[in-house]
Design goal:
Length: 345
């Protein structure tokens, strides 16, 4: 599978910087955040394509008011999305900026009109946001474009994930990546449940990753040995700028640290091997072996006092220790000599 210039057969983890609402309504801030994503080592920047009216209704009743113990409590959905949305007329400029930086760029559409816009921009992939995993018609439309579809599971149960995958496959699209996600902002350590990542891969036979809203960089790093091939994390240019997503976003320095840690984790996993490398072999010089610990006269018995297992490793292997105890030396041995079977009668 490929997303833009990123080839999953040749590279390990696709790292996405999520712009989300961290543009704060300023085009130049959005552009500079994309440049920061490049400096921080991201492979991709992801946008969100919606208008307030394409994602909710302008209704002011309790059902449309946020009251879930979040940083957005008290806001009406329409007002929140009106504040947070990325103006559609910016998209072309932002895609151009990403291309200039050598970054892959795509977006999360929230309705058919957004898909139409993104198709005109020739996006290399689509992302289905967590709350849209139940919008099967939207998933079918996106999948019908024949491009990789990345789906977050923030509010999803097993049946929701299965239905979303089936919706893609019904369109003949098997380029599916499922991201373990928890729709809590921020996500606590106890809610992350990263052990689900390999289970998703096993149960649904798809590529997996992590869309992370926890604080810090631990979750993305821990997800790597669980098999995550995609990491998505919110990036903000400066947390002091504020904004609706600022409280769980990484700044450029933190994002760069995350990228470094993820790349290090990739290398550390390596492969299953019991091979003794040249470096390891050299260090075996400092392993234990049997040495003469006191002068021993010819005919004298080998004891626990006059032969010991010590460092370095040039003497007899310690597995022979009990075998030689009580045996006679066949020559005079000096303290500090590496012990050998040839010195035993």
């Amino acid at each position: 599978m490929k997303i833009g210039t990123f080839d999953f057969l040749k590279k390990k983890t696709f790292i996405i910087a999520e712009l989300s609402a961290n543009h704060n309504g300023k085009l130049e801030l959005a552009k500079e955040t994309i440049r920061a994503a490049k400096r921080a080592g991201a492979d991709c920047v992801k946008l969100q394509t919606y208008k307030a009216e394409t994602i909710t209704l302008d209704v002011k009743n309790s059902q449309f008011k946020i009251d879930h113990g979040t940083a957005w409590d008290g806001k009406y959905l329409y007002d929140l999305y009106k504040e947070a949305h990325l103006p559609w007329e910016w998209h072309q400029d932002l895609f151009k900026t990403a291309a200039e930086e050598g970054l892959v760029c795509f977006s999360s559409p929230f309705d058919p009109s957004a898909v139409e816009l993104l198709e005109k921009l020739n996006v290399p992939a689509y992302k289905i946001a967590s709350y849209e995993i139940t919008d099967i018609p939207l998933i079918e439309l996106v999948a019908s474009k024949g491009k990789p579809v990345i789906i977050s599971t923030g509010i999803a149960g097993e049946d929701d994930i299965r239905l979303a995958i089936e919706a893609c496959k019904k369109q003949g699209n098997n380029q599916i990546i499922i991201l373990k996600c928890t729709s809590a902002y921020p996500t606590s350590n106890e809610e992350a449940n990263l052990a689900t990542i390999p289970e998703i891969a096993k149960r649904f036979n798809v590529m997996v990753g992590l869309s992370d809203h926890s604080l810090g960089i631990v979750a993305p790093v821990v997800s790597i040995p669980y098999g995550a091939r995609v990491i998505e994390k919110h990036l903000i240019l400066n947390k002091s700028n504020g904004g609706v997503d600022s409280h769980f976003s990484l700044d450029e320095k933190e994002f760069k640290e995350m990228v470094y840690a993820v790349r290090s984790a990739e290398k550390m996993i390596g492969k299953v091997t019991f091979e003794i490398t040249e470096k390891m072999q050299n260090q075996r010089d400092f392993s234990r072996s049997l040495y003469v610990a006191e002068d021993i006269k010819k005919g004298e018995l080998i004891t626990e006092t006059n032969v010991k297992s010590v460092r370095p490793g040039f003497g007899l292997h310690p597995k022979h220790y009990k075998e030689i105890l009580g045996k006679q030396a066949n020559k005079d041995l000096e303290k500090g000599m590496p012990m050998s079977i040839k010195y035993i009668k």
